[in-house]
């Protein structure tokens, strides 16, 4: 996505895949302590047998490691209910650039003694230290889950449905995701996945413990809807949008956060800006946290098209007080665009922290921080 884990020149690639042991699990508090190489799906299966779940769920859960999830502050489908990893991660073990092992592997929900150093490493993309172990607070597994798929005629109606949903369901609302009709078209064209309801400009996937469909249908905000007989089937469609895009051509991917009421306007403005130069311009994402995945396809890599997209997408996001990276980080590709989201004084302080912890610049070099700090 942003080149956060790829070597640029002759770097050594470090794998934590063999560090895949679950160290402890407290069935009373729900606190899991494990090594960084544990695959997210394996942790989910382990917890499922004990009536708990992981606080995050990703499309890549079958391959991603929990250490990488923490290093990138991964968001995913459950952030709306359980919050980000900055809140659910209780402790870390980290190896620093000079070889020292920083033991912050606490299992306490409250610890107000000094600086919370683990927060430096959450979302740092491996540029400050190598995460080797994680302790994380896991919620109890819900007794039942309802997954609802709805269609709306306008994005304004979609937002009003979100307001209705939040007002009625509160904290039991786990996910509120959306995709546009262009996403549905690609799913049908390339993956032969049919639309489970009538055609609409916008679609919503809601995960909750409450039977929300009846209230939504009587609100006049939605056109059609259905409840999944198996909760994985409708989420499966949403998770496969990325796969459908790969069949549509070369894909330019952007992951931004914006004020919720403005997230789809970027898609509309980008379509108008690019006109016929793009094959497809699609939008989907997490309404609950204002996260838009903007994807643009062309038959092949097109440098002229890329020049039309960037920096337009970053300038637009900055003007609307958003972030150019909502959950995928900056990596190699976006590091020099950081000033669209962060003031220079803040970036300079980040550089000072990097220099203090990694003076020789050996940890994931050429990532996250801009070139002008060197």
UniProtKB/TrEMBL annotation:
Pfam families given in the database record: FAD-oxidase_C, FAD_binding_4
EC assignment: 1.1.99.39
Gene Ontology molecular function, alphabetical: (R)-2-hydroxyglutarate dehydrogenase activity; FAD binding
Key words of the record: FAD, Flavoprotein, Oxidoreductase
GO cellular component, one term: mitochondrion
Recorded superkingdom: Eukaryota
SUPFAM superfamilies linked to this entry: FAD-binding/transporter-associated domain-like, FAD-linked oxidases, C-terminal domain
PROSITE patterns for the chain: FAD_PCMH (PS51387)
Sequence ranges assigned to domain FAD-binding PCMH-type in this UniProt record: 1-141
Cofactor dependence: FAD
Catalytic activity entry: (R)-malate + A = oxaloacetate + AH2
Role played: Catalyzes the oxidation of D-2-hydroxyglutarate (D-2-HG) to alpha-ketoglutarate. Also catalyzes the oxidation of other D-2-hydroxyacids, such as D-malate (D-MAL) and D-lactate (D-LAC). Exhibits high activities towards D-2-HG and D-MAL but a very weak activity towards D-LAC.
Family: Belongs to the FAD-binding oxidoreductase/transferase type 4 family.
Protein name in the entry: D-2-hydroxyglutarate dehydrogenase, mitochondrial
Species: Sphaeramia orbicularis
The organism's taxonomic lineage, starting at the top: Eukaryota, Metazoa, Chordata, Craniata, Vertebrata
Name of encoding gene: d2hgdh
